[in-house]
């Protein structure tokens, strides 16, 4: 089982949209996918049609209790895609986790209890670099970073990469950068191209070839409780996420074998 964290401490970069739609695309290839919603806002849960009243167990229970992923997971309307939803309880989890001796490894220990049930786990993180995101990175093999094509996003990326190095040195030496995906790309905006060129110059092949365009259908889909790939399979945003999922699989050989 491969664990991938989708993270960026800056909000509004398409992080949750990326987690939902990449998860859907991977499930469509035959992989068994679990999405863990680790954001107290619970947007990934809502975006997959999981109502507030249906979240009997949540990612909070994985972190502070002894609940296993199998016990907390809920099947979504997407075949082979399950989700561990988030509730408002998660907003106080960082304070509660301080009391635990292995507070940075709580999620890692919980995921290990469901290691045989899924092929890939995606973790949707909050827009911060607090204890929730650190737990996700400690539990992961790789990091997928959505990056909005704007100037201030570059500053945030630098901070994130510094945090990754600290996680590697102290907790998880095997953590790698799966890739950076450029989101909200608008070819009509010169700054978009400039940011794209700058990121590719600095990071090279770490940046995915696929870019995610600004797309109304991507924004509309969550309000209907479904991924864009189901809401409008043919829209530009959906097609871009399908292409991104292909790149993700190509960068993770174990996934290639499982999907074959």
Report on this structure:
The protein contains 13 helices and eight strands. The protein is α/β, with parallel strands linked by helices and 260 residues long. The chain has an eight-stranded mixed β-sheet with strand order 3-4-2-5-1-6-7-8, with helices on both faces. Helix 9 links the parallel strand 7 (176-185) and strand 8 (207-213). Helix 6 (106-112) packs parallel to helix 7. The chain is globular and about 50 Å long. The mean pLDDT is 90.
List keywords for this structure.
260 residues; alpha/beta; 8-stranded mixed sheet; 13 helices; 8 strands; 17% strand
What's the arrangement of secondary structure elements?
Layout: E1 2-6, H1 15-28, E2 33-37, H2 43-47, H3 59-64, H4 69-72, E3 74-75, E4 81-84, H5 93-97, H6 106-112, E5 120-124, H7 131-139, E6 142-148, H8 151-170, E7 176-185, H9 190-203, E8 207-213, H10 216-220, H11 228-231, H12 236-251, H13 253-259
Helix pairs in contact: 1-12, 6-7
Q: Give the overall average pLDDT.
A: 90
Radius of gyration based on Cα positions: 17 Å
Q: Could you describe the largest sheet, including whether it forms a barrel?
A: 8 strands, mixed
Unreliably modeled segments: none
Beginning-to-end CA distance, first to last residue? 15 Å
Summed up, the helix count is 13
Strand content bin: 15-25%
Strand order of the largest sheet: 3-4-2-5-1-6-7-8
Structural class of the secondary elements? alpha/beta
| DSSP strand count | 8
Helix content: 40-55%
The arrangement of helices and strands along the chain is: EHEHHHEEHHEHEHEHEHHHH
Q: What overall form do the CA principal axes indicate? A: globular
